[in-house]
Amino acid sequence: MKLPSEFIEKMERLLEDEASRFFSTYHEEKANGLRFNPLKIDRETFLTLVPFALSPVPFCPTGFYYDAHEQPGKHPYHAAGLYYIQEPSAMFVAEVLKPNPGEFVLDLCAAPGGKTTQLAAMMKNQGLIIANEIHPKRVKALSENIERFGITNALVTNETPEKLAKYFPGFFDKILVDAPCSGEGMFRKDEEAVQFWSQAHVEQCAIKQRHILDCAYEMLKEGGILVYSTCTFSPEENEQTIEAFLQTYDDLELLSIEKVHGIQPGRREWTNTNFEEMERTARLWPHSLKGEGHFVAKIKKTGPSPSWNGRYAKPNASKQMVREYRQFEQEVLQTEIEKPMYAFQHHLFALPDHCPNFDGLKVVRAGLHLGEAKKQRFEPNHALALSLKPQDVRYSLDLSSDSVECLKYLRGETIQTGEDRGWLLVTVDGYPLGWGKEVKGMVKNFYPKGLRIN
């Protein structure tokens, strides 16, 4: 790999004696990781079930390393949302924020959703997580990953940080700013990041990051916690960005992050004022642990915030639409969904508890997408299937992960069963994969077209 000469000079100057160890990592294989989904499976069952050789990521209880030759992204368990493929050092960030069930949480720069899915799993689908992504293309991937994980308490938005700051002053208990950055920690896994790198780009990123942090500050409650992270090494985007943020507001306290398993402190000598407290931040270096690299800072807002005086979202679904859904629920499910029912045209959603009014915001997903009202009938959405457990439905069709039938289902083909039970939940080794409709001995396939494999 050919690294930019300006980057090499800069890192040699910054790292001094450590530089050769740092640069030697570019001749090694990148670290591959996945995180199991505690909303669907526990650790022990997961380890017994999956056919990959895994070793634990020491700084993330749900994380594991896998070997480069494995292909977990192509396994049906991935389609069932049993795990998320994620670069290992990125897993540490959500562990630092650690939201509790019932809290109001914002992931401000959330795509593709690795950290959102991790935070939401910690919240056990209780409370509210707003996952925002400014780029329309990237927000689609974010929304799909939230769906696959069986997350029901997320509001996915496609907005600017400024617009959200106007809507949600002093609203959130916890905020994650996983900031857009120069991506120096991506070089081993993304050649494009190498081509894109320049010192000017680093400086542009730093300006953007400071602006995003200003917006996040407005939205944090008194006593609230903000975690800032990047996947880059440059001090301008890390220590110096946090230094500037702390200098701007006098009611912020930099909290200490535990340094174990090879995690290093931030560098005070890389700040502009030799700011001693910067050692409370954390750096994950590829030459100190198995991962591509991250910077993490944890900050508490100690001063008062404006109190949020917005309104909560009200159910707006027509009686007929709700009636059609309830009829489907009675015929197909063995569980009741008791949440505010919200309609976007013909599509019905079950909103998270205490969901704020989102009129005027670009909302991509509002809680759990239950399905669509069609002529005199209700057609369930894929998201509903992935949020259920097999015992939540009257009928299911279980396929073995290594069977031809499972492959056929993921390709969108029909499956012969010889029965006639109507809607059923198709599962893989007992874990929901999607819907099928059994009519006259054949299961019609409702696996979404965009997810089907060739």
From TrEMBL:
Signal peptide: none
Name used for this protein in its record: RNA methylase, NOL1/NOP2/sun family
PANTHER family in the cross-refs: 28S RRNA (CYTOSINE(4447)-C(5))-METHYLTRANSFERASE-RELATED, NOP2 YEAST -RELATED NOL1/NOP2/FMU SUN DOMAIN-CONTAINING
GO terms under biological process: RNA methylation; RNA processing
Entries under InterPro entries matching the protein: Methyltr_RsmF_N, MeTrfase_RsmB-F_NOP2_cat, MeTrfase_RsmB-F_NOP2_dom, Nol1_Nop2_Fmu_2, Nop2p, RCMT, RsmB/NOL1/NOP2-like_CS, RsmF_methylt_CI
Residues covered by the SAM-dependent MTase RsmB/NOP-type domain: 1-302
Binding of S-adenosyl-L-methionine, residues: 109-115, 133, 178
Record-annotated active site: 231 (nucleophile)
Parts of the chain that traverse the membrane: none
Keywords on record: Cytoplasm, Methyltransferase, RNA-binding, S-adenosyl-L-methionine, Transferase
